[in-house]
């Protein structure tokens, strides 16, 4: 049957996205650390199941379903965290709270770099307060009581608009990258190693920014880099799909391998777009 690989691949991707969407709707936040650990461990374990059962039907499809379930279960809290951060920044802006960077350097070439952020009300820059101060706790209590604890908070519609824009942008990116691959005569296989190194560098920078730099601007720039990386990954994986189809490879192993790659590209692209759009607000 012609294009059997295409049918299998896109059917698997579509099914995985549906399962992840349902799981993300069910789980909006982790209740315990154990739940978070099991979700992350389960996602990695299911990847090994997919590799092991790659060419064994229907075990391979079940493994894909398990992966998409765990990914969706983690996707809900991830979106919730990004949304809470978005609303918190909107809340502080409406309260007239601004932030500035205090960088006290000492030692040889600033070896003892004591850098941190402080907050102040607009027009009263000299009277600033720390992140763990009583004023900040009052703001956090106000935010939790009047924003997070109600269903129709004043920032909910703005956040829903950001999520919708990220979804539409992801769909457009998938369609355009597919079009580029099937119209362009170029071979995109050279992107593989470049993208792997770029993704590894992005992960390292994310870790450094989370625990050391803690810079909102770096987070925004990294999300831009993530968007570029996963758009190019879509091109790379669609190119793999086209070549396998031309060569007449319709095996389950190839379909599963490419489908899981495309699925992860789409999920990660959506998250990167969501971060970029929410931070850019």
The stretches of 5 or more residues where confidence is low (pLDDT under 50) are 106-112
Q: What's the total number of strands?
A: 2
Q: Roughly how much helix do the residues carry, as a percent range?
A: over 70%
Give the CA-based shape: elongated
How many strands, what sense, and barrel or not for the largest sheet?
Answer: 2 strands, antiparallel
Placed side by side, the strands forming the largest sheet appear as 1-2
- Terminal CA distance: 49 Å
User: What is the CA-atom radius of gyration, in angstroms?
Assistant: 22 Å
Percent of sequence in beta strands: 5-15%
In DSSP terms, counting alpha (H) and pi (I) runs of 4 or more, how many helices?
Answer: 8
Give me the secondary-structure category.
mainly alpha
Taken in chain order, the helices and strands follow as HHHEEHHHHH
Mean pLDDT across the residues is 91
């Amino acid at each position: 049957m012609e294009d059997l690989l295409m049918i299998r691949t896109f059917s698997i991707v579509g099914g995985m996205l549906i399962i992840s969407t349902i799981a993300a709707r069910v789980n909006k936040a982790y209740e315990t650390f154990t739940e978070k650990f099991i979700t992350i461990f389960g996602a990695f374990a299911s990847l090994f199941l997919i590799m092991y059962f790659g060419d064994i039907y229907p075990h391979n499809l079940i493994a894909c379903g398990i992966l998409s379930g765990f990914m969706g279960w983690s996707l809900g809290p991830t979106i919730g965290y990004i949304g809470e951060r978005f609303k918190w920044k909107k809340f502080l802006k409406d309260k007239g709270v601004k932030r500035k960077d205090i960088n006290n350097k000492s030692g040889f070439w600033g070896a003892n770099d004591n850098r941190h952020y402080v907050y102040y009300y607009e027009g009263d820059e000299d009277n600033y307060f720390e992140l763990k101060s009583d004023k900040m706790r009052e703001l956090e209590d106000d935010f939790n009581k009047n924003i997070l604890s109600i269903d129709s908070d004043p920032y909910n519609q703005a956040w829903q608009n950001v999520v919708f824009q990220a979804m539409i942008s992801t769909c457009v990116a998938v369609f355009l990258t597919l079009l580029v691959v099937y119209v362009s005569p170029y071979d995109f296989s050279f992107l593989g190693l470049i993208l792997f190194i770029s993704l590894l560098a992005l992960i390292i920078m994310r870790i450094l920014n989370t625990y050391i730099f803690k810079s909102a601007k770096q987070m925004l720039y990294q999300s831009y880099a993530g968007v570029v990386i996963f758009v190019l990954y879509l091109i790379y994986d669609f190119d793999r799909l086209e070549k396998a189809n031309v060569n007449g490879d319709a095996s389950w192993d190839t379909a599963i391998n490419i489908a899981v790659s495309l699925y992860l590209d789409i999920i990660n692209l959506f998250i990167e777009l969501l971060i970029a759009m929410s931070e850019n607000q």
